[in-house]
Amino acid sequence: MSDHYIFLMGKYEAQIPKDRLYAPSHMWFRAEGAAYRVGFTAFAVRLLQDVYFLDWTVEPGAVVTAKQEIGEVESSKAVSTLHAPSDGTLLRFNRELMKDPTAINVDNYGAGWLFDFDPKDALLLTAEDYIRRLEGTWDETQRQIKGQMND
Amino acid sequence: MTTNRITVVLSQTRSKNPGKRRLEEDIATALLLEPGIEFAVTPNVYDLSPGDTGLLYLNSVRGHLVLLSWQYPRAAHWLLDRNGISGKQGVTMLKSLGAEDDEEGGDENEERGIGPVETLDRYIFCLDLRAYDDASVYVDEIKRIAKEASVKLVPLTGLLTVSNQGDSKPDLFQRFSDLEKKGAGPIALGESKALRWYPVIDYSRCTNCLECIDFCLFGVYGIDHKDRILVENQDNCKRGCPACSRVCPENAIIFPEHKTPAIAGAPGEGPGGLKIDLSKLFGAPSAIELAAMERDVELVKDGRAAVGLSVGIPLRQAGKAATEKDDLDKLMDELDSLDI
Q1: Has residue B324 got a pLDDT over 90?
Q2: Do A83 and B331 touch (CB under 8 A)?
Q3: I need a surface site. Which of A41, B237, B319, B329 has the fewest CB within 10 A?
Q4: Are A18 and A3 in contact (CB under 8 A)?
Q5: CB atoms B283 and A24 under 8 Å
Q6: Are B127 and B268 within one domain?
Q7: pTM > 0.80
């Protein structure tokens, strides 16, 4: 049995590993000590494509609330604000990415991790639930993007 | 004073940025020597209150006006309008920040909006000082406008009024003229002000739907005797809170000093526009949620109860369902070829 699920985005196969949990905002959570290591899912990276720039607008150690703006990412296809996946504490950021964010594209499930996070009451999804969610929202997501392309 | 003079007013930056200050000084130096141009400097017009020298002066100008400011031209124009300084929007050759190659949306919006109450028959040119680093770009454009004003635009009544009213100008105006004659440098209209924060309505976009008055719980908005929306109590507005701008369906509410271009009066509709915005996918609250969150923060600060999404939330979001049914899964592959 495979260690990941596949979600098809056009011809692209986004891999969703089964060894971790997921937030609906397309971030993976892997237990790291008492907290979690967090990064972009393959789905997110596929939409972003080449990441040029990553910036955090809160300090390490910051207590954040769900949906609070915590940073910004710029890539070849998109520019987006990033938001806290749930209430919690942002323990530390991946400093390597500040120098060079390419690890996000090269190894998004490993060296391209974004930050360590201690969530409070986070509602995390299993890989299976995340895939189901992607399937449920994929048409809408594409419509959202398409709407912006046609503007 | 001749009839074809134009007035140029420079609205200073709030910032101490030496580069910005230098640009202002370079422009001032060049324009003071320029015949046919009346030149004055004021603190950021956004921070002025009625009765402040800068606004009195701007109100006394009846002819064509050029405003140089560190804001989007749309923000600057409607900021002047709000202060009773009206005119038709002059067409400048300079680009503004955030402007696309061709802005076609503007005309449609103008037809949708209820328009300003009354407009003086003259042109106001708002130039965005953030667009170029080089003072000569602005000086050349102002010379071009001045030249055009003296040739084509002269028959406008606004210009004639200037000469007619020449004798009855307020004292303060006379004082500035004297200053100028003595070569005392640019006419400086007042000291820098406390920073203010309030919305400015773009009436070329506003449809008078009144959603802002329902949404704002701080009594900033009111309606005039013609039932038109207006910013009635601007100082009730909560510093940093742009929530009403987010709920406005026409993007007609401008906070000229907000960091988000779409809120600060950038041309066009959405923020950025150049690239696809994936913020929603990464957990960004919707504009309505964000507006409600911002409003709650201010309510709580005032010792009032947060109301969340329970008060004054427009229902228009419902029914904005999918409008197109097409081959969506090709999109990802199309994205690759998209030249952005």
Answers
A1: no
A2: no
A3: B319
A4: yes
A5: yes
A6: no
A7: no
